[in-house]
Amino acid sequence: MPEMPEMENYRKLISDQILNIPITNVIVNREKSINIEGDNFISELLNTRIIFIERRGKYLNFHLNNGRRLLVHLMLGGLVYVGTDGDLPHRNTQVEISFGATTLYFIGLRLGYVHLLSAKEVEQVLGQLGPEMTDRRMDINRFFNIVNGRRGSLKTLLVNQNVIAGIGNRYADEIAFEAGLLPSAKVQDLGPEVIERLFMSTKSVLSKAVDAGGYIDMPVTKDDSHTGSYKSEFKVYDREGELCPQCGGIVVKAELNSKKTFYCPTCQHEQ
């Protein structure tokens, strides 16, 4: 599933290609991926323009010039591509929105969606999300307030979108590793110094991942060589049985609250 760094990368690259260009064609190949009847979805989008793309957590919010919004959540397996039929990867598309010769393709929307909503409806959805770690207002004091009083495992806290928006399985594991904490560490047992270390690690991992184009390495455009560059920087996620880059021990895969979890049992601790 694309997480905050991937969605931020998508936002930047898509914005460079389609803003303020009239929508000339819309194709819906899977009606379950949209929220209204297909013909209405198409007619409401034709001849409008996307004037701004906002990211909130794992969502992309496309602002149309008529005040409407396209709210996109890619969920598990969802991807985007901007280009033409000639350079589109051999993947099934569920929704296609064309801007003259350039088309925005939504791919792999088995669970994901592209919903046409009012601004108020979008606010109701996004209003349930917690704050963002990359928000300039997120400082150590605000982070302390988020963590204090919480109970349960560290990973459960990090992936809870109502507490902190945008972090999923892979970045939760990488953040825990950088902080030297087990994903199963109990949040209620973390002292102030440990929470500050967690804060710095969370900011650091997400910032570096955004700068490197995230983890998912399918290009967004034909000439895109940046997307997915952070994949090679992962220390523990999806590296079961490999050597820990920090201590040389073996990275372990486990299950925590029904989620696969990767960590180094030597480098990571309860505190």
Explain this structure.
The protein is α+β, with helices and mostly antiparallel strands. It folds into 2 domains: 4-126, Alpha-Beta Barrel (N-terminal domain of MutM-like DNA repair proteins), CATH 3.20.190; 140-263, Helicase, Ruva Protein, domain 3 (Orthogonal Bundle), CATH 1.10.8. 28% of the residues lie in helices and 20% in strands. The chain is built from 7 helices and 10 strands. The chain has a 4-stranded antiparallel β-sheet with strand order 1-6-7-5. The chain has a 4-stranded antiparallel β-sheet with strand order 2-3-4-8. It has a two-stranded antiparallel ribbon with strand order 9-10. Strand 2 and strand 3 (59-64) form a beta hairpin. The chain is globular, with a radius of gyration of 20 Å. This is Formamidopyrimidine-DNA glycosylase. Its EC number is 3.2.2.23, 4.2.99.18. Belongs to the FPG family.
Keywords:
Helicase, Ruva Protein, domain 3; 271 residues; multifunctional enzyme; hydrolase; alpha+beta
